[in-house]
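QA checklist item 7 of 12: single-chain prediction sanity check.
[x] sequence parsed
[x] length recorded as 1031
[x] structure emitted
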Amino acid sequence: MAAEESIKVAVRLRPFLETIKEESDGRSKRIIRMDELSSTVGITNPDNPSDIHKFTFDNLFWSFDGYSEQADGYFAQENRTVSEEIYCDQKQVYDEIGKEIVQNLWNGYNSTVFTFGESKSGKSWTLLGLGANKGFLPQTLTDLFKCVREKEKGFQQNGFSAEVRFTMAEIYNDRVKDLLPSSASSSTKYKNVAKIREHSKKGFYVEGLRPVLIVNHEDIQHRLEEGLINRATFLTSINATSANSMTVIAITLVQKSRNHRGDEVTRMATLEFMDLPACDVLSSERESDESMDFICLSNPNIKANGIDKLSLCVDKLLEESIGKHSGAVPFHYHGISKLLKNALTGNSRTYMIVTLSPSETSFKNSLFALQFAEKVRMLNTSSAINEEVTSKLIRELKGESDRLKKLITLGEFEQCNYFTTQAGELLLLSPLEREAFKRRVTEDMKAQIKENEKEIRNLQQPYEERLKAFKIEKNDLGKKQENDRKNKCHIFNLNGDSQISGKIIHIIPLGTIDFGQVNKGKENHFLVLCGPGIRDVHGTFTYNSKDGKISIKPAGPNCKILVNEMLIQFDTILTNNDRISFGGNQIWVYQNPKETWLEKYAFSYKLHYEYVSEELALKSECYRNLCQTGPPSDELQKELICLIPAIEDATAISEDLGQNFTMKPLILQPIDMLLRESNTEDSDKSSYYESFKSIKSSEILIKVQNSVDGTFYYWTTNKFYEQLEMLKESYMQFVEDNEIPLKEVQAFKERSDMDMPIGYSIICLKPLAYLVNINTTAPILDYITFQQIGSINVSLSICDDETGENMNDVEVFIESPDELIDDNLTAILCIQSPDKICLHYKEVYCKYKFLEEEEMISTKLDIRPPNFIGISNKYEKKFSIHMITENTLNLILTQYLILRFYGKQKAHKLLNLMGTVSNTAFDPGRSANPFEQERINAQLKLKEKVEQRHQRRLNAMKALVDQSETLGEESIPVTVVKSLFQAKSQKQVDQSLEEHKESLTVVPEEEPVEEKQLAPELKALKRFSEVCSIV
């Protein structure tokens, strides 16, 4: 009878690593605490030390410190430790969990052990180990065979026999590869030699895996080494690491004995070890950033390598456990979730080992791993002893096969287990999808019949006969490689995963030997290099027997080879420990054991993958272009070191698939960040800038450009890594089938009608606080480089509050913005057609937010050809602010109107005309901040306006003085001076002067008619009299 029990969870903390800079140089702090008494793990938020998350688990393993390395390389507990915890070595981890698992296996219970954690957290170290530090799996197998020998001796009279079957597979991009193929089927291709099927009783399983019989401890080491070498060959051929792949190792123990009736009883149990992909959490800080709202973002919280689907399944299972109906659990979404279904819900005793990095830089990943483990611990499985009388078991298998054959013949799929378990989802399928589902079910049932027939043969055939027929290959591949490595010139692979690095060794023989792709029909290539960017004949090794020197030469200009991070074009002599890079980004190391100084540098730091990959990235042309305006920050440099090799891989795959796409990284500095960093005098007065304090200072985008039609789009790094995995899957299918999988390659492209970011225009609103109209030809700044790529006419005109009439003809300029408080302000925004950018876009849109508007306003702009003659439509919108407060006035004084342009591209050939292809990022240290420039321009306009008013006042006062002198006025009334000083236009000045003149001129009395007639004579006499008096 099945017994329900919860999944057990253990947590292990690794030490700081020398290969990670932040940890080796002491810059990183430990954020993980463990309390073994309460079995509690605490993780501290590095940004908020008071924010501590605590979790409780079944086992805690402190492996952070308190250890020393012994002579054989084993890390053991020190006699004295300065830490408050006691170091747990590999043996102690196994003793606390492994012995119980081996006992479960003997008792007939299925068991599953899976490791979970981020990249480089110690998953593979815990499960497989390295060198003398044997991991959980090797110790389990050693203990298992020790028990087998003891039981075989103790139960010989009972007809007891035991056999151990061993399988090993790799899942990458939901494709399964058998890591222990037979010699006849052994291949370095990417063929999907195994498929995941669903069994009516066993659940999901891998069809087609070759089970290997293990008879002793030596076989264990041999098969593990064989599987790891095949795994390294497979992952190296696509420049991959274990971060995106899962290793599944299954050990099946079959015990046969006789009961008290004399019937043969078979007890069969399987122990599965699963090294899951890295649970790397992706950054989603940019998802809500307005400056990124044009870009096609696809940023899930978890890296899309199967862990995201597994997390979804666990959430659904928890909802079911509390009675919440949430539909079918989507285990079928991914191969990883399929193979873990039985471990999470079925007939299994399951153990989860969570590995953690102590570094503060791993806070998000570690917190997610602990939260996920806490959820898994709440799940229950139903384990039962898998034991049955052999004859009955055979009858059941035959009966199940007959039933499936009948269902296939009659087409009664509704009676199949798949329809009953997924009936809810099937109702939503279209007729075509339902037919496809029936075909898949038919294939699964046929595969199940084959599995049943194979199991019947295994049960009926004695173990000794099958062991003899199996012909175990005593191929000491590992020992042979080690001997060749010590005595012959060779190259070996480097990889970021220690389980893969150094596993592939190629011996260089005397003479001249070509190397290149294995699957291109070139039988004479001794050195098989599969992978993107590697040609049919990629290069030549020449081993000169006279001087003992070895040289390497590329076969052509398209055959990329780098030696010590330098691109070579001619024959180049190799020296010991030279680093060689082929194709996209495959890294190898050349060693010559005959050189006397080999031992001195055998373990040089230059042989670490981290060092070599960093040197390759920092010396690449791509990185040099990015550094034209100065080196990036440490954070960005760390990200670029990982990103640049991946971009080279993606570019090489694109070329091999015949796609015309190039990729290059660009550093984006958000425009809102530039606003915060601008040296605005009044910025400290406004809380507006507080909202930008959490904005990331800069971010890397990948520009993907079609080299034929010039169209391009941007990817975030998260999006890029997702698409890279799709590209690698397409590449594997292309190599195997020799045809391009159009569906997957299309997924690499984006929609041609998607809106792409163009750039920005920035308008300082400060003049509005002085009631000064804004009428400017604003430059359009490129989205990435902030270089000018066009221009646009923008105006903000003050309007009359009541009539709405434009007040362009009346100067309403005020000298103190405080005069606006408690007053109203109405302005009309006018945006004309943009200039130049119409060359590359068929539609252009503009988004902006004005002052305290809550939502972005979007409008389509009218675009015209460069030499268009005529009237283009303009965009206008009126904004009114009632009862201006101090806060509103402060916003007007400090805010900017940011116009964000985006549009739909049109094919063109000369993208350089627009200037948007520059790799150079905006550098605030060398380039003027666009906000600062706009603020200075606004200040100059205000200063010019003030000077114009002062000059007008000065001219008015001068005119007033001249007029008074002419009229003989000795003093000027204050009211006249005040009227001139407050005049807002030259018209008002002229009017005030005329009124003053009229007030000083005396109107003469009306003369009699007779006097008028004598006027000329009287005037003449009057002048003569005056002259006489003067004389």
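[x] summary fact logged: The radius of gyration is 40 Å.
[ ] second reviewer sign-off
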